[in-house]
């Protein structure tokens, strides 16, 4: 994971470590840093911001009184963590329990482009919640893509969960409403709604999603982004945010992502928390996202 980004940061640390920190030297190294970050799928504006914040934190420091390597490492760490902590924190389990105490199901709508891993991620979260003792129902809200209903039903069968579905072509908002009604009648804790994911600029898709939102008022809207899609994932997240104002992100395929820039970019661009990362194709390959773990993994390599 993140091999490329790791090497970028180590080279910055090395380059500065050899020198006294003057503005000219910082500029030179930061320009190189920016180019390398962009190569690692960090969006241009984000790379620029990292450079700016880092520069501000380094200039004026008396390098000779610090160990330069530690100074740079510490400031990079701070800069990256700041980006992740600009987003509000969401405690899903606490939120589910709060609804449960009111006798109501917690409704989560999954958003994202086809192929990003949305359906698999929904199933992984269902597995995690079931393990924690919650009762869960899955809603086949993608009524467009051939095979999508069967795909979700197959996950449900493996996980021992019920699905709510209608025929292909049915109104996803109506299926979602059925799911929430079912959960209320059967006193279930969580409703997980899958949704269609054609290209993100498809206006009909966004209208369809907004209709689901109007009809079931989800407690949480989660955007699923594919770490391997790099800058595409960033522009998808921007577009979905504009229309749906989603609450949080799950980043998939992090296990196969050598570049590592998408997490930083999506966090910066959307100002939404990354709730989990997908780290494989099995149901338990869903990890809570811990910014410190990612940042330390990138920076603290010798
Ligand atoms: P959807 O079209 O967005 O619903 O995507 P799917 O859930 O069908 O997933 C597409 C492919 O990505 C499948 O082969 C999944 O097994 C795979 N996938 C999903 N999440 C991950 C992940 O975190 N890591 C890896 N390596 N593969 C994943």
CATH superfamily of the largest domain: P-loop containing nucleotide triphosphate hydrolases
Radius of gyration: 21 Å
CATH class of the largest domain: Alpha Beta
Mean pLDDT: 89
Report on the architecture of this protein.
With 302 residues, the protein is of the alpha/beta class. The chain folds into two domains: 82 residues, SRP54, nucleotide-binding domain (Four Helix Bundle (Hemerythrin (Met), subunit A), Up-down Bundle), CATH 1.20.120.140; 198 residues, P-loop containing nucleotide triphosphate hydrolases (Rossmann fold). Helix content is 54%, strand content 12%. It has twelve helices and eight strands. Strands 3-2-4-1-5-6-7-8 form an eight-stranded mixed beta sheet, with helices on both faces. Helix 1 packs antiparallel against helix 2, helix 4 runs antiparallel to helix 12 and helix 8 runs parallel beside helix 9. The chain starts with a helix and ends with a helix. The model has no long low-confidence stretch (mean pLDDT 89). The site of guanosine-5'-diphosphate has 19 residues, from helix 6.
Brief digest:
The protein is of the alpha/beta class and 302 residues long.
List the helices and strands and how they pair.
Blueprint: H1 3-17, H2 23-39, H3 44-58, H4 68-85, H5 92-101, E1 106-111, H6 118-131, E2 136-139, H7 148-159, E3 162-164, H8 172-185, E4 190-193, H9 203-216, E5 220-226, H10 231-244, E6 248-252, H11 261-270, E7 274-278, E8 286-288, H12 291-299
Parallel strand pairs: 1-4, 1-5, 2-3, 2-4, 5-6, 6-7
Antiparallel strand pairs: 7-8
Helix pairs in contact: 1-2, 1-4, 2-3, 3-4, 4-12, 6-7, 8-9, 10-11
The structure holds guanosine-5'-diphosphate.
């Amino acid at each position: 994971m993140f091999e490329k980004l790791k090497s970028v940061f180590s080279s910055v640390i090395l380059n500065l470590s050899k020198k006294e920190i003057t503005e000219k030297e910082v500029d030179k190294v930061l320009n190189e840093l920016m180019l390398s970050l962009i190569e690692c799928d960090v969006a241009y504006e984000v790379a620029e911001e990292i450079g700016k914040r880092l520069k501000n934190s380094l200039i004026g420091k008396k390098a000779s009184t610090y160990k330069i390597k530690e100074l740079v490492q510490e400031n990079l760490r701070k800069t990256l963590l700041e980006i992740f902590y600009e987003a509000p924190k969401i405690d899903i389990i606490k939120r589910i329990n709060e609804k449960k105490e009111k006798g109501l199901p917690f409704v989560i709508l999954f958003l994202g482009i086809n192929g990003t891993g949305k359906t698999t991620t929904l199933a992984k979260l269902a597995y995690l919640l079931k393990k924690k003792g919650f009762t869960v129902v899955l809603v086949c809200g993608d009524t467009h893509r051939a095979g999508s209903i069967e795909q979700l039903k197959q996950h449900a069968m493996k996980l021992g969960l019920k699905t709510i579905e209608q025929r292909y072509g049915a109104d996803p908002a109506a299926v979602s409403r059925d799911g929430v009604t079912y959960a209320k009648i059967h006193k279930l804790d969580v409703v997980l709604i899958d949704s269609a994911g054609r290209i993100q600029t498809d206006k009909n898709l966004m209208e369809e999603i907004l209709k689901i939102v109007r009809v079931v008022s989800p407690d949480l809207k989660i955007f699923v982004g594919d770490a391997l899609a790099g800058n595409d994932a960033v522009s998808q997240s921007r577009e979905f945010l504009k229309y749906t104002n989603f609450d949080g992100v799950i980043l998939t395929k992090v296990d196969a992502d050598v570049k590592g820039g998408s997490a930083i970019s999506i966090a910066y661009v959307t100002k939404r928390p990354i709730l989990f990362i997908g780290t494989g194709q099995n149901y338990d390959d869903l990890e809570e996202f811990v910014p410190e773990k990612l940042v330390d993994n990138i920076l603290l390599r010798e």
